[in-house]
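Retro notes
What went well: the complex prediction finally ran end to end.
Inputs used:
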Amino acid sequence: MTDNYAYITGIGQSEIGVKLARHPLLLTLDAVREALAEAGLALGQIDGVSTYPGRSAAYLGFSPVGADELIDALGIRATWYAGGMEITSQLGAVVAAAAAVRAGQARHVICFRTVYEAAAMARPEEYPPLRRETVDGNAQWFAPFNALSAANWTAQYAMRHVKRYGMTREQLAQIALTDRANAVLNPRALVRKPLTMDEYMSARMISTPLCLYDCDRFTDASTVLIVSAGNAIDEVSCTPIRIEAMAGSVERLSWDQAEWMACYPTGEDLWKRTDYKPADVDTAQLYDGFSFQAVAWLESLGFCGRGEGGQFIEGGKRIALDGELPLNTFGGQIGAGRLHGFGFAHEAVVQLRGKGGARQIPADPKVAVCASGGGPLATALLLVRD
Amino acid sequence: MAEVGVASRALPRLDQDNRFFWTAGARGELLFLRCRNCATFVHPPRPVCRHCLSENVLPEAVAGTGVVDTLTVNYQQWRPGLTVPYVIARVAIDGAPGVFLTTNIVGCSVDAVQMGDRVRVIFEQHGEVFLPLFEKVPL
């Protein structure tokens, strides 16, 4: 078979935990091994590596392993590689890899995201936390006002939905409740206990309207997606998942100068690059580092109108495993852990291959959308099993 | 010193782009870069207009008032020494269309701030840096 699409072939994931002792490079290797085994590929067939955000020296727990280190440590003979933060968010690393294989720069690219934020908190001498007594760049417009977390920045967009569009806490809760219900069925998920509406409503506030359960938590894990060229998928033994369309658009690279978060233009642009429509999507795996981001993605991708996200998820039936649009079937980041973007593409592939086990959605899904980021940076992928 | 709900703040590192902004509070002024060619405000400050690419961009004082575009009340103690809760708001700056500042609304209870509230700047001094905070304008 020869074509000019890029495909996701092997996928892999390490143990997902908190304060893991296992070395982050070895967590990455665990995920690589699983992905290679699934694809039936040998490491010698890998000729590319792509990651987000690369090794993060200023805050090592955020990203302790870069493309450089993985290539050298595993003896990968790369003909193309990339790793960096100035890209359209976490799954931008997959977009870059897809562009590379379509351009003939590589045939099989390991895309990975390794997080070690919980271990770093437990071992600050080895993995120093981010220090910012003085700030520059974008941080100078937020940190001096103690708007220190993406929770604060996201909360301001969420508050606009509360005040302008009438989104209620009970509506927003459906993201966390759905995530936690799905995570119970995912053996690897970080939190495997369902969340009740009462627990949600009585949780302490982090940054209004976001409460504790609207936020993901620091996690240690690695996720790998192998992106393969269309003319190389005969070499893999798993069902290839075609990347039908990709988008990553931005209006202002800023958390406070944009009227709408970057997920909105990204969602619109995704549908300009395909003949598929939102109604064709069998499952959505949408970034939920903070629950509201998933609401914004649902609107951005046209599953409902702007401002209608709260009503769309009300009661939770529509986005449940057996609903019309199953959402974050692995538990999302709120249930499965802060895999930071890559978990959504991983799960889209799991579902399209029918490998979800107890959490597998019915009706032989063929089309999935996944997304990472959403604030000033956003990436959306439309994945299809032919 | 203004009453604020926080004990410590990270401060901006002054450079050739941002010095005018962070130090203008010494004269009680809130300044933004404005293009002399097409009148667009340029924020964050950079030595070129994002609308017409003119390099003739100069600081200009605005009234120092604005409207709360959106807000959040932060309850999480992100670091030791932080006094919570406090209001983080995005303020639409009067006279500078399209320009917003993320800031704190101070001088009132956290429950007293709503979207649409009219606010005015007050400066909190940290050495040569003057942080533009905002307080509600009495009705």
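What we learned: Residues 248 and 379 of chain A are 4 Å apart (CA to CA).
What to try next: split runs per interface for comparison.
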